[in-house]
Amino acid sequence: MEVEFTGESSLQYAGDAVVVGVHKGAPATGVAAEVNAALDGLLHRLIESREITGKQSEMTIIHTWGKLPSPRVAVVGLGEVWRDPLLAVRHAAGAAARTLRDRGCRRVGMALHLQVPQAVRLEQAVRAIVEGAYFGLYRGGEWKSEQEWPDELAQLSLLGVSEDASDPVAVVGRAGRLAGEVTNYARRLVNQPPNEMTPSRLAQDAAEIADAVGLEVDTLDPDQIRTLGMGAFAAVARGSEEPARLIVLRHRGRREGPRVAFVGKGLTFDSGGLSLKPSEKMSRMKSDMAGGAAVLAAMLAVGEMKLDLDLIGIVPATENLPSGRAFRPDDVVKALNGKTIEIVSTDAEGRLLLADALAYACQLGATHIVDVATLTGACIIALGHVSAGVMGNDSALVEAVLDAGERAGERMWRLPLFPEYRSQLDSNIADLKNVGGRPAGAITAGWFLREFVGETAWVHIDIAGTAWNEKDEPHHVEGGTGAGTRTLIALAEHMAGGEA
Ligand code: BES
Ligand code: ZN
Ligand code: ZN
To answer: DSSP string of 154-166?
Structure first.
């Protein structure tokens, strides 16, 4: 799809459809009011008759009968006026792009970025809309043998903005396009069935990324993982016939300054191991590599953008399966940093992989570490499927992650790592145990990770609730969401000093 910027207004643009938004319970304003006037008040009549309610992402397609150069106007709901305006236009753009493509449109003009309040910068709105459109256009179903897919959108035009390619709006538009594309790449990785998306296949994808954008890549096999001293990661990997991989990508954008590491949980399937999950909780556990997918996708974007940043991406990848070789509850394992861990549940495996990966990031000289992981069911209990949980040992880095999440349109909420929680991990026989009981389960998991970063500034993002979308909605289909991807990109842009 081509994304272009044009000075043309919605009354001048001649594509297949023009998209404008209306708020819930409000008359058409701004560009929607202009379209309303050109259509002799039709929008207002539809609003009065309640055929258009303005509910978030509601779509109404109107034929213009020659009153506008475009044959259709798509009116999309922006929800309540008091809701987050950037999230509203992001989702509306996704719903509009998806619906119009499915109705056979090829060239679509968007005016939604002109409908955010004055306080919101045009660049931010444009980025949200471009990212949102890509997000909406993603489709699953790669494994259906009968593909009945309508053609792709050929062109998305952002109306009423400068056509100059060096204009800041065009620059953020390109960044938004890249962020949208790589988010969908992460979603594809997550949606791959686990018999195809094995640890070695994930490593192969990482090698392709490295090749495509010029990153260094290093992949460690099970022998190397064990020899290095990653006893926690190796323990989880033991039960599976599929060989584990430690994937390390490096973007050397800058020699001095901070060295940032993104670490992603890469469980290509989590059965729980010997602490086997009940079957209803086991389905969808192919998505337990969503953190790893986000890290790979973000590395792809950062490499493509050639950001001025020294960045390492680390993804420990394995399956967690029961077998005669599997690690057991009651085992004691030793992580790379020398700490010993009593295994209480083999289903709390993500933190074991991450323990070694975080310690490895420290060994590689990282000054700032951010990990992304589908880590705990407890985070879903705390924040539902709306927001990721954020924890860390460095308030400045936590704030930077929360800000990046906001720019990226990903809900993030901080949970406290109060020292009182730490005692829940005390073990009688080892340095700590891998489960801290049911109370504050997301936080004790965060505390567990903290034990492996020493004094290095570190933030943990628990995406257990946001990595998978349970049902088709106007702006996105069921399946992987690419959670974390855009936040990591926005953070990398910020740390490289060129924030959007
Ligand atoms: N991968 C799961 C967490 C998860 C649950 C992600 C649901 C997405 C949806 C993780 O490995 C796990 O099983 N965690 C356990 C930890 C417990 C044994 C302390 C959990 O949350 O139940
Ligand atoms: Zn588990
Ligand atoms: Zn898991």
So the answer is: -EEEEETS---TT
User: CB count, 10 Å around CB of 117?
Assistant: 9
Per cent of the chain over pLDDT 90 is 94
Note the pLDDT of residue 500: 42
Rounded to the nearest angstrom, the distance between the alpha carbon of 38 and the centre of ligand 2 is 57
Which residues make up the environment of ion ligand 2, defined by Cβ < 5 Å? 270, 347, 349
- Computed over every residue of the chain, the mean pLDDT equals 97
Mean pLDDT within 272-288? 98
Ligand 1 lined by 273 (C-beta under 6 Å): no
Q: Would the CB of 465 count as within 6 Å of ligand 1?
A: no
Is the confidence at residue 499, as pLDDT, over 80? no
Q: Around ion ligand 3, which residues have CB less than 5 A away?
A: 267, 270, 288, 350
* 428 Cβ contact partners less than 8 Å away, ≥ 6 residues apart: none
Q: How far is CA 462 from CA 310, 407, 411, 483, in A?
A: 24, 18, 12, 10
- Distance from residue 227's CA to the centre of ligand 3 (Å): 24
Q: What was the pLDDT predicted at 147?
A: 72
Ranking 167-171, 241-245, 315-319 by mean pLDDT, the lowest is 167-171
Q: Is the beta carbon of 352 within 6 A of some atom in ligand 1?
A: no
**Residue nearest (by alpha carbon) to ligand 1 atom 9:** 464
Summarised one tens digit per residue, pLDDT across range 45-95 is: 999 999 999 999 999 999 999 999 999 999 999 999 999 999 999 999 999
All domains of the chain, ordered by start, with CATH? 2-161 (3.40.220.10), 181-496 (3.40.630.10)
243 lines ligand 1 (CB under 6 A): no
- What single-letter amino acid sits at 161? V
Give the residue among 497, 33, 19, 500 at the shortest CA–CA distance from 253.
Answer: 497
